[in-house]
Design goal:
about 35% helix; alpha/beta; about 260 residues; 10 strands; about 15% strand; 8-stranded mixed sheet
């Protein structure tokens, strides 16, 4: 079973927050505080994904098995057995799979940072490179904490393989029932970044939106793909108040905050 925390359980609507790769549930601390506050506080459930945080013992990290585990978590701990699902980066892949396979558990969907890359002959080299970069950067910037993470087995080479397999993949995106799930796909489009790009790939967002098929016969409103030219890939961490307002607006069916524009 996934390790998770539950906040403000007396509120009748549940939001599930799915963190990004090589992180843990504390990534959402500031966003969660905004979502559980007045005037409309939500019940917020925040799990640690397999091979991360307090779910470090659960292996492997797979888009399919993790979506199943999250569906069980929603069934057992969300009000009414359904939740508004929010996923960032690697968590966006899992959130989309959850909505595709278990639509009865998903009230609405917000995903940001969904990027998927075609594999090539160099793909097998990526896991050790990611492992080296991840731990070298951490050991140089926070040596004590970085060494402790290594000793606990966090950011393992197996996790690097699992994460690369998820985001560097030729898999077809599975259909999401847009009649029962309304999806908001967000592209962070700030053109800044040093070692790594800070922006998302617009074509991948379009591809994800196209996987949401709708006849108009269901209760869900139309899905959208939007971009924000001032947001970075990690905007759930950089701008938690804006992120929370965006989630609230999508759930409530009102205008998104200023700065968002529809993706052409």
């Amino acid at each position: 079973m996934l390790s998770f925390t539950s906040h403000n359980p007396s509120s009748p609507e549940t939001i599930l927050l799915i963190h990004s790769g090589f992180s843990n549930s504390t990534e959402w601390d500031q966003v969660r505080q905004h979502l559980t506050s007045e005037p409309h506080p939500y019940h917020v459930v925040v799990p640690d994904l397999p091979s991360h945080g307090t779910s470090l013992h659960l292996k492997p990290l797979s888009v399919y098995s993790t979506a199943y585990l999250l569906s069980q978590l929603i069934r057992d701990h969300a009000h009414g057995g359904t939740a508004h699902v929010v996923g960032a980066s690697l968590g966006a892949h899992i959130a989309a799979q959850l909505a595709a396979h278990y639509p009865a558990r998903v009230s609405s969907l917000v995903v940001t940072g969904f990027n998927i890359f075609a594999p090539n002959v160099l793909t097998p080299l990526l896991p050790p490179l990611v492992y080296f970069w991840l731990h070298t950067a951490e050991l140089l910037s926070h040596p004590t904490e970085g060494m402790a993470r290594l000793q606990r087995g966090e950011g393992s080479l197996d996790l690097c393989r699992d994460a690369v397999e998820m985001v560097v993949s030729a898999r077809e995106l599975e259909r999401i029932d847009g009649d029962s799930v309304s999806a908001l796909v967000v592209v962070a489009a700030a053109r800044e970044g040093l070692l790594l790009p800070a922006w998302d790939r617009q074509d991948d967002a379009r591809r994800l939106l196209e996987s949401v098929t709708r006849t108009g016969n269901g209760p869900a409103s139309a899905s959208r793909a939007v971009l924000h030219r001032g947001a970075r890939h990690s905007w759930q961490i950089d701008e938690p108040e804006l992120f929370a307002r965006t989630v609230r607006a999508w759930i409530a069916g009102v205008e998104l905050p200023v700065g968002f524009e529809d993706l052409e």
